[in-house]
User: Fold this.
Amino acid sequence: MEGLLAGNEDAVRTLYARYARPVFTLGLRLLGSVEAAEELTQDVFLAAWRKAARFDPARGRLSTWLMTIAHNLAVDRLRHETGATRPHLVLVDEVPEVATAGEEDPLAPVAERDAAIRALGTLSQADKRLLARAYFGGLTAREIAEADGIPLGTVKTRLRTALIKVRRANRDKERP
Amino acid sequence: MSCLEVRELLPELALGVLSPGERTEVERHLRWCAGCRKEAAELGQAAATLAFTLEPAPVPHGLGERIVERIERAAGAPGTPRRARMAAASIVAAMVGIAGLGWGSVMAGRAERFEARAAQAEMERAAALERFQKVLLGVVPDQELPARETHLGQLTPTADGRGGGAVLQLVSDRMLDFTVVIVNGLDPEDTDALPYRVELENAAGSVIRAGQIRELDADGGAEVFRQFRNKDLRGFTTVRIVDATGRIVLSGVVDQTS
Assistant:
C-alpha cells in the first residue's frame, strides 16, 4: 500500500494482478458491456491510487475497499448517464465473454470467490435474493417493500440482519 | 442526522442504493462519528462479499498496462494532462491573439484576463498555432473559423469555492458546434467531487451535457472538448461545472452576441 501511495509502478501491478478480475467482473455485471467495465476498472485503480492515503487497514480489508470504490463508481456512472435519482441497474444473467484471456494470477480470485460463496451460503435463498436485488439490481429498501407488498421496516431489518450474518461468516473464516 | 437515523440507512449505504442526497448526509456524519463509521465498514465489507460471488470474467489483454500508464500520467510523468491543458490554453490564447480572425477589440478585455496564460503561450506561439490548426482541421473543414461564430467566456468559482476557467464555443449554421472548457485550481485532493460534469443551459432552462472531467492534474486543472452532432448551441450561454454531489463549483456566461 505504501508503494501504491508513492505511485510505485510495481505496487500498482501487484494490486492489479490480485484484484483486476473481480473489479472488472463487477463492472461487467453492473454496466453490461466490456468497454464500460474496462473503463470502470481503470477508474477504480486510479481512484485507489489517489485515495491510497485514506485506506486504513484497521477499518477493513483492501479487497473490500476496492470493491466498494468499484461499486460506488459504477452506480455513480449509471446515475449520471440516466440522470435518474437512483441507478437503473440491469441484471445480467449471462456475463458476456471477453475474447482474450487475462494476465492475472487465476488462483487468487478463486479462493476469494469460494470464501464469498461460503459466507453467502449461511443465508436463506430469500435473503440472498434480497441482498442481490439491492446490490446488483439497484433497488432501494422502499422499492423492494413496494414491489413485494411488505412493510418498509421489515425490508430494512432483513437487509441489516442478512449483512450482519455475512459479516459474521466472514469473520469466522478469518479466525485461525 | 442522529446516529439512530444514520444507522437505519447504513445497510442501504453498504449496498449502494441510497439517494445521492442521503449518501452525502450519511457520509458527513461518518466523518466525525467513529461508532457509526465502524458499523458502516462492517456492513460495507459484507456487501462487498456479494461482488466476489460472481463468476469471474476474463480481463481484456493490456488493461494492466493501460492502467499503469494512466496512473503515471496522473502522477505527472511526461505527456501529462497539464501539458495537454497548456496546449488547450495556448489554443485559446492563440485564438484571442489572431488578428486575422477579427475579434481583436471584442476580445481585448478578455485577453487581459488570460494574460498570464497568453504570456506563457507566446513562447510557443508557432506550435500553439499549429496545434490550433490541427484541432480546427478536425472540426472545420476549410480551416476557417469565423470570428462571429466563435465565443469566449470566463468561469468563476461559486461563493466559497476556488479555481477558475475559460470556455470557448463555436456556434455555427454551417459547422458542428463545439465547446472547449479549461479549468484550473480546483481541489485535486477532493476526489469525492469527481467526476465533474460540464453543463450548458439556455434561457428556457434546458440543460445539455458538454462532457465530464474524470480526473484533475496536480494543479486541479483539466480540459474538456465536446463536439455536438445534433445540437445547436445557440442560446446555451450559461456554463456550469458541477461536482459529483451536484454542487456547482464554477459558472460563467458565454457572450454569444460578440
About this structure: Helices of chain B lie at 3-14, 20-32, 34-52, 63-75, 81-97, 104-113, 115-123, 125-139.
